[in-house]
Structures are given as C-alpha cells and as structure tokens.
Amino acid sequence: MKKILVTGGTGLIGKKVVELLSKKNKVFVITRTQTSVNKNGIMYINADLSNAEAIKLAVSGKDIIVHIGGVIKDSRKNIFRTNIEGTKNIVNACIKNNVKRIVFISSDAVFQGHKNIYSESKRIGELEIKKIKDNCILRSTIVYGKENKTNLGKVIELIKNYPAITIPGKGNNKIQPIHVNDVAKYISIAVEKNIQGTYILAGGEVITFNEFIDEVCKFLGIKRLKIHIPIFLVLPLAKLLEIISPQFGINVSQIKNLNLDKVYDILKTIKVFKHKPINIKDGLKLTLS
Question: What's the number of CA atoms in the CB half-sphere (13 Å) around residue 234?
Fold first, then answer.
C-alpha cells in the first residue's frame, strides 16, 4: 500500500482521483478549508501550497505526490503564488524528503497560440516538476463533468437557463474536451503503472463549439438561439475586465484563443495508458443525467 499525497484533492478532478486511489492506497489530501482530520480512511491535512514549511511536513513520509492543485482564474499575483511558488514548494519538499515520484496535472494551455499568465505558470511549473527525475506530466484539455461550474460547465448552465447564448466569434473553432472521469482515470493509471513522461489528455471526439451547444440542447430537448459577436467587439471588454476584475476569469488571450482549433493526437496516450476516453454524447449523458 503506497502513501500518496494529493494536492487539489477536494476539487472537480481531485475528488475523483482520491476516490480511485484510496481503493488500494493510503491517501493524504492537502486542503485549506479544514483542520487535519481522518475521514473515510482519507487523511486531510490543513496546509497552503504557498507555505513551504507546511508543505515540507505534508510531503514527509510519502511515496508519491499527485499535484493537481492550482489556480486558473485569479490575479496575476495569486496565480503565480499558487501555481509557481506552490509547485516549487512541492518539488523542494520532495527533494528534501527524498520523495522520488511525482505526477503533475498541467494544461494544453502551455502550447496555446496566445499566452497568458495561467499558461505561463503551467509552463514554469512543468520545468520545476522535471527536477524530479521520476515524473509524469499530464497536459489536459478543457475538462467537463457533473458539478463543473466553470468553462464548459458555465456554458451548460447558460444553455439551461437562458433562451439565447452569446458566442464570441463564429463558434466554428474545434475543441476536444475531456470528461472528468477520464482525467481521473488517466491520473490513477499513471500512479499505479508508474508511467513516466509527458502526455496530452484529450477527449475521444473533436467537436466545434457550436456543435457542443447543439449536443447539449439535443440532450436536454430544448432549442437555444446562438448569437455570434465578432471577436474585435469583445476584446475591449475583455481588456477592461482583465484590469479591473481579474477574478472574473476573462482576459484578452482567452478571447483570442477562442478562434483557434485545439485538436490533438491522443494515440500515444491511449497506447501507453491502455485507456480510451469517451465521446461527447456519453460524456454529456454522465454530466446531465
């Protein structure tokens, strides 16, 4: 039985990962929301990624670190503090405690066309992770699933509650979203099979943003009007929000990236992990049922 420390273990992906790993391992979860407590055989440790001493103690005695925790939408300062300094603290703690194995959840944002503070933090984070020789870096595309309230989860909520959906651009950009269950499965396989290297995690189907909306509407048995707004009209608002309210989660590079296709060859991932991700219809069934 391995002792595994999971950061971000209370989030959308993390909860699924902890559920899978705890079946055969002793799992410890770093959390900022509660004091240290043992619940259902899982040890929750109160610590913050930015607190080097607390992380050093949490990492001590563990066999594997699964680093999922991070910030996507926040101020530049907080994203760097959590995603970069937090990752440095994890890596340094591993080195000091002789923990030789780490699995890191990165993002396809590291090679997206228009860079932003989040993509940069993940790029730097990957460089830190590689200081641990036995590492596995998993670059995930956009994740969706039940209880997800951001990105595609927010789009689904808008479809449910409003008669029209506003779309920046033409909506013909191709995406390859992955269901949270598949992400968790890939992570658990990386841990159990001691897989090393860098891999892309993407869904089993390529779809345009317009088609995604259509599939959601079809499943829910509703019709929604799609209103397309030219990108150049949205950019000034995005720039303003980026300055006055970074927590809102909209920035210029994000809007520009809406026009780009995000399609990936996942044959290598499927071959190594021996797991094929589900398609959009099956994913939406799990998400909306």
Answer: 20
Do residues 62 and 5 make contact, with C-beta atoms less than 8 angstroms apart? Answer: yes
For the chain, the maximum distance between any two Cα atoms, rounded to a whole number of angstroms, is: 57
Q: What is the DSSP letter of 263?
A: -
What CATH class is the domain 3-288? Answer: alpha beta
Distance CA 228, CA 212 (A): 15
Structure tokens at 287: 């998400």
Complete edge-to-edge strand list for the sheet that includes strand 3-7: 37-39, 42-46, 26-31, 3-7, 64-67, 101-107, 134-140, 197-201
Count of residues making up the chain: 289
3-state helix, strand, coil in the chain (%, to 5): 45, 20, 35
Give bridge partners of residue 27 from the DSSP assignment: 4
Quick check: pTM over 0.90? yes
Helix, coil or strand: residue 168: strand
What is the dihedral sign for C-alpha 80, 12, 157, 263?
A: positive
Helix (H) or strand (E) segment spanning residue 60 = none
Helix 280-288 vs helix 209-220: angle between axes, to the nearest 10 degrees? 50
pLDDT averaged over 10-residue windows placed end to end, the chain, 289 residues: 95 96 96 75 92 96 96 83 96 97 96 80 96 98 92 93 93 96 98 97 97 97 95 79 62 73 96 98 96
Domain ranges, ordered by start, for the chain: 3-288
What whole-number distance in Å separates Cα of residue 261 and Cα of residue 263? 6
Residue 52 dihedral angles phi and psi, to the nearest 5°: -60, -40
Interior CA angle at 169 toward 246 and 117, to 5°? 30
Round to whole Å and give the CA distance between 285 and 266: 22
The total of other beta-carbon atoms located within 10 Å of residue 156's CB is 22
